[in-house]
Each structure stands twice: as C-alpha cells, then as structure tokens.
Specification:
Blueprint lengths: L11 H5 L30 H32 L1 H12 E6 L6 E2 L5 E13 L10 H8 L4 H10 L4 E7 L1 H9 L5 E10 L7 H4 L11 H5 L1 H4 L4 E7 L5 E8 L7 E2 L4 H17 L4 E8 L5 E7 L18 H4 L9 H10 L8 E3 L4 E4 L2 E4 L6 E3 H6 L3 H9 L3 H10 L17 E2 L7 H8 L4 E2 L2 H7 L1 H4 L3 E2 L14 E2 L3 H15 L16 E11 L2 E15 L6 E8 L8 H4 L1 H15 L7 E3 L11 E3 L5
Parallel strand pairs: 2-8
Antiparallel strand pairs: 1-6, 2-3, 3-4, 3-5, 6-7, 9-10, 9-21, 11-14, 12-13, 15-16, 17-18, 19-20, 20-21, 22-23
C-alpha cells in the first residue's frame, strides 16, 4: 500500500479517528482501495474514561484528611494530658533551688558555723568543642592537664560534673570563658571557723547537708533551709535554656548558743594539753555561768578539724562532756557532807574519828589514802577522808541522801538537749545496804556526766538551788530546784575554798590573785564487774571566785598513764588554767583580800597570801 501524502488529508482529526471520507467521487464498490488508518498515532483519553479513577483518588485523599483531622482532634482534646506529660519529661526539668543553712553563733554573735556559697561545674560534651583553644584555659582553672580534660570529655557520653566546691573567684573566671556546654550549679558548704575547738560540741553536717552530730543534729529543724524548685526547658542534651521559679528557697534560721567562743578556745587548749601531757585516753571540761547555769564552754579532746573531710575519724567527734558516764569519786563528797549539815546530823566543828584509817561495813573495808585521826567535818572535806565521809553519811538516812542527790540532778534525765547525752544512774534507795550508802557518799556506785556534775555544783554558787545547764542564752536566771538551805550553801563555799588551800588536795587549782573553791576526785574505772587497779578517772570541780562565784568549771581526764593519776595532780591544773583565762576574759580585778608576791632570783616569793596575814 502506498502511503497517503499528508497534504491530501483535509481533516487530520477525522483521519486520526478513522472518519476521513474518501477522495473524489468514488462510489462504493467502485474498486478503489479504502484509506488505511495511520500507524503509531497516540490515543486520546477523555474525562469520561478517567472519571472512576479520579473519584477513587479523591476519596482516598478525603479519607486521609479526615483521619489526620481526627487524630489531631484526639491528641488536642482527648489525650492532651498524656502527651503534655510526655513532652514535659522530654523537654522540661524540675530542679532544686538550694539555700544556705542557718548560722550558729556564740552569745556575742561570733560565727561558729556558717554556710559558704560554692559552685559545681558540669559539662555537656556534645555542646563543647574540643578544638576550642579555651579548653586549655578551662583545664588550667580546674588544675588539670588539657590533654587529660579533653580525654575525659571525649570519653563521656552524656552530662557529668567535672568539679565541685569552686570558690566565687574561680567561678567568675570560668564564666568569663563563655564556653558553650558549661553548666554552673550553686551549692553551699558548711564552714567552722574555730575548727577543732568546737567540733565535738557543734558536730557537723553530712554530704546531703543534714546535721549528723552535736548541735547541728539537735537543732536540724531550726537550721535546715527550705529548698525551692524551678522549671527549666532543656534540649536533647539536657542543657537548660529557660527557667521559671515554681517555689523560692528559704535560708535556715540562725541559732545563738550560750557559749563564749574565747572561753571555749581556752578550755579546749587546756584539756588537749592535759591529754597529751598525761598520755590520757581523753579529756573534757565544762564551764557554766555560776548564777544562771548557761553553758559557756564545753570542750572535749581528742578532736578533729571538721573542715577537712578526707580521712575523718568519727570517734574524735565524741563529746565526752555529755556522752561519758563515769563514777565521780570524791567530787561527790561535798553533797554527802552538805546533806549531813542540812539535816542537822553534824556541824562544821563536829569531830569525826577516822583512825585507824579504814572502816569495815557489811564485810567490805574502805580505806583512806592518807590515814588520819580525829577530824572536824571541815577537815574531812579538806583532806578528802573516805572514812570520815562514810561516818557522816551513815548519820543520814538513805532516803534523805538519795533525795538530795536526785534534787541536785544526779541520775536524772538528759542534762542538755544533745544527741546521746547521758543522765547517769542513781539506784533507788530502797535497795541500798549500809555499804551502798557509804560508797555512794564518796562517789562510787553512782554515775554522772561531766556537764551533769558541773550543774550539780551550782547548788553551792546559787544559794542552794540547782541551775539546769542551758545551751541557749537565758533572759534571766531560772529559779532552780532548792537542794540545800542558803546557809548550808554558804558554809560549803567556805569549806570548798579550804580544800584548795594549804593542806587540801586541790592546791594546784589555785589562781594567782583569786580565791577559788573546789574538790578533787580520783576514781578507779569499772571493769568486768570489778574495778581496774591501774585505770583511773581524774577530775576536779570548782568555782571562781570563791566568795562571789562567776564560773563553775568541771574537768575530767580519762585514763592518765604518764605516772600521775590523782585529780589534784592531773585535773586541778586544767581547772586553774581555765579559771585564770576566764578571769582575764571578764577583766576582773584580783581579790582585794589576796596578794600575789613577786618572785625573786633565789626562788622565794611568788606565793599567795591574805592581806593582813603573817608570812
């Protein structure tokens, strides 16, 4: 078939559709060849043929749109809370706002424990460029080698703390670097300006900032701050970039103690010196205001520096003045003698026969260290006679003796509101035999703490009334419980002054220029149901000045082992050192009735004499 020239096609569209009429006047059946349709021509698709498919696609799109709209409605209105919480977890964080702990001060406002602001530095590794030259400066400020710091950052997969306890000056220099990826968090560190001198009394706080021992623990609720909260926006690296305070933090309340920082420092120096000199297991001293009972000092050795936490020895925080219960020995004799005087069983000049220096009761024998003969009641106290005290105690009923001891606070409850403070022990008088009444009269079979013993001695300085020990300043002197008549208390002050004078056991407790009063004590330590032969508690309790007492001072030395163990040798000099320092602290003039004579090259002089007395 020959191709038909395109010029002969009059209606191309009709030709394509196969509708082009034949050329000329050719009639059907004339024998002319029919026109063949064009090969390879494209097919034309009309809208009618695509109508079904368009409807299907439109329906799918409509359904998808309805599904998206329904899902959006569900998320926004039906499960909004659930997704909001999930978003908060991922992109919001609630952090704690710290505040300083309350400050502890002495009676004059001197800071004893303060909270110092410091900073913890964290690093977000993904935000910190290791190629930055400022990394070297960062390492220098952190006292690290740049290479080591880079290795730490590179090895960390997430946020970590690189340093803590940074002081404000270092923190400012770190902030000035303006390094992206550094996180600064404020924290507080407890600082104790007086270190060892106050450690057993104040205690310390743990890593969580809570009081762990001593005053810090006893007054935790008062001193503890109220932590705040803030909501921060964080990115996927947990880097905060927006803060909203939910609850502001509140600092803890301050606490003012009755102690005097200067007296405390002197007391600690004296007891620690005695501990080292006598190779003792421990030592303690308590200083009370003789007219109010306020605790002016409570020192214990050994101690530690609470500002140095590495290698801390917790046993050195032991406050021996309140935790150690011991048998006070002869320091309890004044109470037995005062009871005999107050009950009318004897007078100061009543003569007691102590020969031959020992006494057997209920099959047990008691002895005097220095046997004597006939003694007045005053001499019994001055020479610390066990036999004389025992005979006076037997003149008084067991119930009366027990009652006076109990009123004086012996064997009672906690003497101060500190953790672990012991109240000692005093057995009920109904179970006493004569030997029990005797040994209790001179300080065995009864146990006390040092602060308890010091408080008991206020009966002699406060006109017969016992003043409870107080760790907080008092607006006025408390009434106190009446133990002895004022006349009896005045008599005992005079007798206790004689016990420190010539012929007494407490001569080393004297203070140049002042008359002091007090009593020594030496007791064997209890061991496995009996008493150790070579382990002692050495003690001294007294007050200064003797005629108008300002301070009651009690001293205890546990197990001196350097050759001396008597209270007059070991504890009395500690009392003297503290009493002398306390008088200087008050800037008191020496007793006008006493003179301190100068010392001469030949060794003469230096003694204390009463004005008008012959040398």
């Amino acid at each position: 078939m020959r191709p038909m020239p395109s010029a002969n096609i009059r209606n191309p569209q009709a030709a394509l559709l196969g509708r082009e009429p034949r050329r000329g006047a050719a009639r059907a059946g004339s024998g002319a060849e029919p026109l063949a349709s064009l090969e390879g021509a494209p097919a034309i698709i009309t809208w009618r043929k695509t109508q079904g498919r368009s409807a299907f696609v439109s329906a799918c799109l409509g359904l998808a749109l309805v599904a998206v709209a329904g899902r959006a409605l569900f998320l926004q209105h039906v499960s909004n809370d659930q997704w909001a919480k999930r978003a908060e977890v991922r992109y919001e964080d609630v952090r704690t706002l710290n505040a300083p702990r309350g400050t502890i001060t002495d009676r004059h406002g001197t800071a004893l424990a303060v909270s110092i602001s410091e900073t913890r530095l964290g690093i977000v590794p993904r935000r910190l460029s290791l190629k930055s030259p400022k990394i070297d400066q960062l390492a220098t400020l952190l006292n690290e080698k740049p290479a080591d710091l880079r290795r730490r950052i590179q090895a960390s997969k997430g946020f970590f703390y690189v340093a803590e306890g940074l002081d404000p000056a270092t923190t400012d220099r770190l902030r000035a670097l303006r390094l992206d990826g550094l996180v600064f968090e404020e924290d507080f560190r407890r600082h104790y300006p007086y270190g060892e001198a106050f450690a057993p009394l104040l205690g310390l706080v743990n890593r969580e900032g809570q009081g762990a021992e001593g005053v810090e623990r006893a007054f935790q609720k008062l001193l503890a701050p109220t932590q705040g909260q803030e909501r921060v926006l964080v990115d996927r690296n947990r880097q905060a970039f927006g803060q909203t305070v939910l609850r502001p933090s509140q600092p803890g309340s301050d606490l003012r103690l009755s102690v005097d920082a200067a007296l405390q420092a002197m007391a600690y120096e004296a007891v620690n010196k005695a501990r080292l000199e006598h190779k003792a297991k421990g030592a303690a001293a308590v200083v009370l205001d003789a007219q109010t009972g306020e605790v002016l000092a409570m020192a214990s050795a050994p101690s530690l520096d609470p500002n140095q936490r590495s290698g801390i020895q917790i046993d050195r925080l032991r406050n021996r003045a309140i935790l150690d219960a011991f048998e006070p020995g002869s320091t309890l004799k004044p109470f037995a003698i005062a009871t005999a005087l107050d009950e009318g069983a004897a007078k100061v000049q009543t003569v007691i026969q102590t020969a031959p220096g020992h006494l057997t009761i209920n099959g047990r024998t008691i002895r005097d260290v220095h046997p004597g003969g006939a003694m007045t009641v005053a001499e019994v106290l001055t020479k610390s006679s066990n036999v004389g005290t025992a005979k006076l105690a037997l003149k008084v009923g067991a119930e009366q003796l027990h009652e006076r001891y109990a009123r004086a606070g012996l064997g009672g409850g906690r003497p101060v509101p500190l953790p672990g403070a012991t109240g000692g022990s005093l057995r009920n008088w109904k179970g006493w035999q004569d030997i029990d009444q005797v040994v209790i009269s001179y300080g065995y079979g009864v146990s006390v703490s040092l602060v308890q013993l010091a408080s008991a001695y206020t009966v002699f300085t406060a006109e017969g009334r016992r003043l409870p020990a107080s760790l907080e300043p008092l607006p006025a002197a408390p009434d106190g419980a009446l133990v002895f008549r004022p006349e009896t208390a005045a008599t005992m002050r005079s007798m206790l002054a004689s016990a420190v004078g010539p012929g007494g056991t407490g001569g080393k407790a004297q203070v140049p220029g002042f008359e002091v009063a007090g009593k020594t004590g030496t007791a064997h330590k209890a061991e496995r149901g009996t008493y150790a032969k070579d382990r002692y508690i050495s003690s001294f309790v007294g007050f200064v000045p003797a005629t108008a007492p300002r301070y009651v001072i009690a001293v205890m030395v546990d197990e001196p082992s350097a050759g001396q163990h008597y209270g007059g040798q070991v504890a009395a000099p500690v009392f003297s050192a503290i009493a002398e320092g306390s008088m200087r602290r008050l800037q008191m003039s020496p007793d006008p009735q006493r003179q301190v004579l100068p010392s001469f090259a030949d060794g003469s002089g230096g003694e204390i004499v009463r004005v008008g007395a012959r040398r």
